[in-house]
């Protein structure tokens, strides 16, 4: 059994989706970011960086793993799923996983901050991060032109990138004119395990995305957390 400490963010949903895809039994422990639970001593004993997600593998002497990319690698190696066993195949998955960890996630995260949450509209910063997000999307689109998934078969690289790319509207980054990326987004969205993972826990951001009033309310709540140093999205 695995204990998952998480919240409804793209990084959190990476892990709940992976657990659902792998069929691993787990217990979700939602972390209330608004109450700063991720900074409490009991959680810092699991993840000294005070961020979600984190897991504790009870079957392995309560082994704790933090950082979403590291958790995905751990789970893939533990189960032998969604990660090739050959050196080249594994490297390909890791490369696209690192592409998300070093590019897609940070750029979209900063786009969220300046486009949605920052109290002042600093247009050069918005343009910078949305533009870089769009550039990274074109890289994905180019890869997906000749590949059904990013690294051959469906893998943890797809899970990691998709959990962020699916939220492109919230970041203000368009996917228009990127047909291969759009095809990939929709194909993964249809997977039953992905749909289940997105509900562990459900995202207020998803519920707010199509409603301007609720979107503004959600953004204001996140802005307050950012101003008080309580969270990172």
Automatic annotation (TrEMBL):
A Gene Ontology molecular function term of the record: transferase activity
Domain of life of the source: Bacteria
Domain GST C-terminal: 86-209
UniProt keywords, alphabetically: Transferase
Coiled coil (residue ranges): none
Name of this chain's protein: Glutathione S-transferase
Keyword Transferase recorded: yes
Domain GST N-terminal: 1-83
Organism: Massilia horti
InterPro entries: Glutathione-S-Trfase_C-like, Glutathione-S-Trfase_C_sf, Glutathione_S-Trfase, Glutathione_S-Trfase_N, GST_C, Thioredoxin-like_sf
Pfam families named in the record: GST_C, GST_N_2
Presence of the UniProt keyword Ion transport in the record: no
């Amino acid at each position: 059994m695995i204990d998952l400490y998480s919240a409804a963010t793209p990084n959190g949903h990476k892990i709940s989706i992976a657990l659902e895809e792998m069929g691993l039994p787990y217990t979700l422990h939602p972390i209330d970011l608004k109450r700063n639970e991720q900074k409490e001593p009991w959680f810092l004993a699991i993840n000294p960086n005070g961020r979600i997600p984190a897991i504790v593998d009870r079957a392995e002497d309560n082994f704790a793993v933090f950082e979403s990319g590291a958790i995905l690698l751990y789970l893939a190696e533990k189960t032998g799923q969604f990660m090739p066993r050959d050196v080249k195949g594994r490297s390909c998955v890791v490369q696209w996983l690192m592409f998300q960890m070093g590019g897609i996630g940070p750029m979209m995260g900063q786009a969220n901050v300046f486009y949605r949450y920052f109290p002042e509209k600093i247009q050069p910063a918005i343009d910078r991060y949305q533009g870089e997000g769009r550039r990274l999307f074109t890289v994905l689109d180019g890869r997906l032109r000749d590949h059904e998934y990013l690294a051959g078969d469906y893998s943890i690289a797809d899970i990691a990138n998709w959990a962020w790319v699916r939220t492109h509207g919230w970041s203000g980054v368009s996917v228009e004119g990127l047909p291969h990326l759009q095809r990939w987004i929709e194909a993964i969205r249809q997977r039953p395990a992905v749909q289940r993972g997105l509900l562990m826990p459900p995202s207020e951001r998803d519920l707010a995305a199509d409603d301007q009033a609720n979107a503004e309310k959600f953004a204001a709540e996140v802005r307050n957390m950012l101003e008080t140093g309580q969270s990172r999205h």
